[in-house]
Amino acid sequence: MRWLLAISCLTFAVLSHATAVPALDGAFIDKVLVVKSERQLHLISRGVTLKSYRISLGKQPGPKRREGDQRTPEGLYWIDWRKTSDKFNLAMHISYPNAKDLARARAEGASPGSMIMLHGTPLDEEYPEWFFHTLDWTEGCIALKNDDMREVWNLVKDGTLIEIRP
Description:
Elements: H1 2-20, E1 31-35, E2 40-45, E3 48-54, E4 75-85, E5 89-94, H2 99-107, E6 117-119, H3 129-133, E7 142-143, H4 146-155, E8 161-165
Parallel strand pairs: 1-8, 6-7
Antiparallel strand pairs: 1-2, 2-3, 4-5, 4-8, 5-6
């Protein structure tokens, strides 16, 4: 009887661990593609889209030009570090600004801004998660539902290319 209990516990532990971390058939995610006009984030491996997610963007349309404009940047960047966030659960930093963004901001005499993140949705007693998921509400970041953000967090490694298209 003890052996049966031990085997069942071991089986449960193995199966629950297998489903705890999302896997895409062992594929390595080498690019994250954000298409702002579609409100989609795509996980790509060797040119093939393996999974897509609905996203929310900055409150204002168009490419980011300066700090505080509430726009999501466009261009090529890297996921360069991550953190847990009290306000937005999990957050992955996007390496904005790149050299092109810096040059444009200098030419305009403005600061390009910083701290553009790929993050989850606030846990807010007044507004449920679905409320945030139906509109563009960030200050320029890219937001996903928290379940989706947990998947992306587990599948995308630091150093991964992220392309943000209009």
